[in-house]
């Protein structure tokens, strides 16, 4: 079972992560990459994969996990002929700057609270572990931006990828393939809207349906494509194990530091969400 400390750490990460992930839904990212002749879908792959260097589709498929390899191959490695990883990193940081200024406002950007949140988040992020965590490790090798709001975004990125890399190890152990992982998460009611996540990850309706059938055969989904008690328990176990693998950053902060970062990040995320950080209807079972 997860501990109270693990639950606090998970909550902290949950309120911090949107400050990172909102970038992938922002017009700021699309605009920056359009100047480099990269379309909106390509912008996601370029921005997130850039820390890895000019890698091929196989590396990105492995690191991202829940995308169809064929879908990744439509963009990678061809993208690197249009934009270099260094250009992509510069573009994503410019996009993060304009996004945070737009969503939070200049007063928040210049506030002591944001600088404090950045300091705490960087302390946590610097305590992650690199082995078997390719996206975390690649981002950890990047310089920390000097501006506090960009340092906060950088730290949120590190913490998101640290947890995500660990989560993928847990999915492999549970023998959930990429589309099964997405299907079961969507069925839990905690994932993104089914049609959007299926299309954005490059899975066909036939592939999604086949994954549901495999999960039913394992007793994890019922006839209505809802989680069975066994499926619900598996999803809980996945989160517990991910919490266990993600302890180091939050242990470094201690309980008081985790609580303070949660308070600060929660307030900034609430402001960002209220300002339209994510599309309406993005989250939901169906």
Write a short abstract of this structure.
The protein has 286 residues and is an all-alpha fold. The protein has helices spanning 4-21, 27-34, 40-49, 57-64, 69-73, 79-82, 85-104, 106-109, 112-125, 134-140, 148-173, 178-187, 194-200, 205-217, 229-245, 247-274.
Structure write-up:
The chain is mainly α. 70% of the residues lie in helices and 0% in strands. The chain is built from 16 helices and no strands. The chain has helices at residues 4-21, 27-34, 40-49, 57-64, 69-73, 79-82, 85-104, 106-109, 112-125, 134-140, 148-173, 178-187, 194-200, 205-217, 229-245, 247-274. The protein is globular, with a radius of gyration of 19 Å. The chain starts with a helix and ends in a 12-residue tail after the last helix. The mean pLDDT is 95.
Topology of this structure?
Layout: H1 4-21, H2 27-34, H3 40-49, H4 57-64, H5 69-73, H6 79-82, H7 85-104, H8 106-109, H9 112-125, H10 134-140, H11 148-173, H12 178-187, H13 194-200, H14 205-217, H15 229-245, H16 247-274
């Amino acid at each position: 079972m997860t501990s109270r400390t693990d639950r606090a750490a998970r909550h902290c990460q949950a309120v911090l992560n949107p400050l990172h992930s909102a970038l992938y839904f922002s017009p700021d990212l699309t605009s920056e990459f359009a100047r480099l002749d990269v379309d909106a879908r390509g912008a996601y792959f370029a921005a997130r994969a850039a820390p890895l260097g000019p890698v091929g589709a196989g590396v990105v498929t492995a690191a991202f996990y829940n995308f169809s390899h064929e879908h990744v191959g439509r963009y990678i490695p061809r993208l690197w002929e249009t934009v270099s990883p260094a250009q992509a990193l510069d573009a994503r940081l410019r996009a993060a700057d304009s996004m945070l200024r737009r969503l939070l406002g200049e007063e928040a950007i210049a506030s002591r609270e944001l600088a404090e949140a950045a300091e705490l988040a960087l302390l946590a992020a610097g305590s992650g572990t690199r082995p078997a965590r390719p996206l975390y490790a690649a981002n950890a090798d990047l310089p920390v931006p000097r501006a506090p709001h960009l340092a906060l975004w950088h730290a949120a990125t590190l913490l998101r990828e640290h947890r995500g890399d660990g989560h993928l190890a847990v999915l492999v152990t549970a023998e959930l393939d990429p589309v099964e992982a997405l299907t079961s998460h969507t069925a839990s009611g905690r994932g993104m809207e089914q049609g959007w996540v299926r299309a954005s990850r490059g899975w066909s309706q036939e592939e999604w349906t086949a994954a549901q059938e495999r999960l039913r055969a394992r007793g994890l989904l019922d006839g209505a494509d809802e989680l069975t008690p066994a499926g619900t328990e598996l999803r809980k176990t996945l989160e517990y194990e991910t919490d266990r693998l993600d302890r180091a950053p939050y242990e470094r902060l201690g309980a008081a530091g985790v609580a303070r970062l949660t308070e600060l990040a929660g307030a900034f995320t609430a402001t960002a969400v209220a300002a339209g950080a994510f599309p309406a209807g993005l989250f939901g079972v169906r």
